[in-house]
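Sample log: STE3-domain-containing protein.
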Amino acid sequence: MPAFNTVYSVFSGIGFILAIVPLSWHLESWNVGTCMYMIWTALACLVHFVDSILWNGNAINWAPVWCDIAIRIQIAVAVAWPACGLCIIRRLYYIASPTTVTTSQADKRREMIVDLLITIGIPVLEMCLEYIVAGHRFNIYEDYGCAPATWNTPLAYVLVHSWPLIIALISATYGALTIRAFMKRRKQFRDLITANSNLTYSRYWRLVALASLDFCFTIPFATWGVVGPALWSEVRPWVSWADTHWGYSRVFQFPRILLDPVSAYSLETTRWAAVFCAFVFFGFFGFADEARKNYRLLASTVTKRLGYTTFSESMAISDSMVKSNNGSKSGVSLPVFITQQIESKRDSFDSYSDKLSTSIILNDCDLKVQPYSPTEQSTSSSSSSMISPVDEVPRVPESVLDHTSVRRPSVPDAPKSVYPDSALDQV
């Protein structure tokens, strides 16, 4: 079983990355339901990833403060997923209904506030309501980690267990209304999508599919969440607040060998649901252009930190070289490489002479250019001109120059390759 738990640790870590990476470009569209769906899914994967590592093969209370935070996130996520699905399908219904499309900034701001209240307000409210029926602090299960300890009373079904089912039923109603509105106004639908910025036709239907899949899975699982506790455990009557919270600071620890099959199935279903939601979201939106760009950027950043270059970067470099070569007049041409060799300086006097040996290789031609030295110029000249080593230097007639007027370089031990015997041969 620890090997199976290790597999889950790997998948939950991958699920966290898949859910959090596309968040940046989804924030640009201000789709609150989609963004909060990614945030809650990433938080759920992160919590179960940490729990699967800390409590791998044990049920020891290593981190009580972490468990206090983890169980609150688990309680919120159970309601946040159907709430985000409701927010998404509700917005899509408004887009498909021309009479309900919001155009002013005030209307858009109002709709955003309503979406935030649905996707954040309801889960936070669920955290507070669960504390009313919490029998003790939390439970710890081997390999699973922390879990909330909800007391099985009739009040728990009203405050905790029934919320996901109610929200999923409302989402299903909005889904049916969305399909009905689309069938009635099929010709106007593309114009409505065009009028709504940051939303394309394909993205609209991907959101519809995501919301539909969400409530299709939520309804049966939420129904089991309501019926299951009543079947496999005894329902205790609600007496009072003091009776329910007596000895609240207790922590129950359960090794895996003591778990019955129904409890083990429930725990595994709960934590694998987070991974399933992450991969479902990646299946709908992970292959879009924006998502692939973000995933490539993440892969490039990680490989650069490890000292490697990604395959996409090397292909981009080669593609740019091919494009630049194809754009030249001569068709395909080889690149030009210029190599420079600088001799080491022996003393301070050598710094006044330029001993730069330049070799230019152009395609298959090898052009050797002799170095330029300021000491070979005449001292009487008041101005100097720099001649490009690539340009052709005209030959000066010998009658103009006087062999005796040429000053020999005074640099000691100058190599003959730099200062030849006849200066006229280099002009």
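Observation: The radius of gyration is 37 Å.
Observation: The CA atoms of residues 203 and 424 lie 77 Å apart.
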